[in-house]
Amino acid sequence: MSTPHDVNHQQVRDRENAATANSASVATTLSLHALATTPPPAMMPVRLKVNGKERSLHLDTRTTLLDALREHLHLTGTKKGCDHGQCGACTVIVDGRRINACLTLAVMQQNVEVTTIEGLGTPDNLHPLQAAFIKHDGYQCGYCTPGQICSSVAVLKEIADGIPSHVSLDLLAQPTRHADEIRERMSGNICRCGAYANILAAIDEYAEGQTS
């Protein structure tokens, strides 16, 4: 004889299934409503000057400079590594200063000169620093190399322009180019292959050639 407290497990399962199905239906309806009411991304014309050439694009305003270079201008020498500004693989030069292209929006880089690795040299006409990297074997897999080279060029300009670093002993004096100074300034460019000593040798040889 059953009592009011007896449990019908089949009825419990049926009610659970019905509740789950109802919740899923509500969630789907809400998702479809959200999609229907979400406005499209804002688009705008963007003019970039890259490697000396004016380029006109029509971009989602959220597009990073890195994605604009790689996906829209097809300049794939600039690499996407961490995409969080921590590895330096996407380093480019903007008006003589190095930046991480993944951390800035393309719309913010109008009316400036952007230089990528493609703008420094070509396979038939290498930049002297590219030649130094080859001579000193300053790379292994090569993925970080474009960023390393762009950063190196800008680092030497920083020193020449008198910009101090965290290891500069006198912030008012002209920085000197020595190993610790170069290592500190290049510390934002990661080489997982560990070619740091060779990279330093390449930078040093190039810098010596510039001052001789």
The helix fraction, in percent, is: 40-55%
Structural class: alpha+beta
| CATH class bucket of the largest domain | Mainly Alpha
CATH topology-level fold name of the largest domain:
DNA polymerase, domain 1
Integer-rounded radius of gyration:
27 Å
Provide the number of structural domains: 2
Order of strands, main sheet, comes to 2-1-5-3-4
Strand content: 5-15%
Number of helices: 7
CATH superfamily of the largest domain: [2Fe-2S]-binding domain
Assign an overall shape.
elongated
Average pLDDT figure: 90
Helix-strand topology string = HEEHEEEHHHHH
Going by CATH, the architecture of the largest domain would be: Orthogonal Bundle
Can you tell me the residue ranges where pLDDT is under 50 for at least 5 consecutive residues? none
Strand count, sense and closure of the main sheet? 5 strands, mixed
Distance between the termini: 105 Å
Number of strands: 5
Assembly form of the protein: single chain
Question: Could you explain how this protein is built, in words?
Answer:
This protein is of the alpha+beta class and 212 residues long. The chain folds into two domains: 77 residues, Ubiquitin-like (UB roll) (Roll), CATH 3.10.20; 91 residues, Orthogonal Bundle (DNA polymerase, domain 1). Helices cover 42% and strands 13% of the residues. Helix 4 crosses helix 7. The protein is elongated and about 90 Å long. The relative contact order is 0.11. The model has no long low-confidence stretch (mean pLDDT 90).
Please outline the helices and strands.
Blueprint: H1 9-37, E1 43-50, E2 53-60, H2 65-72, E3 91-94, E4 97-100, E5 113-115, H3 117-120, H4 128-135, H5 145-160, H6 179-185, H7 196-211
Helix pairs in contact: 4-7
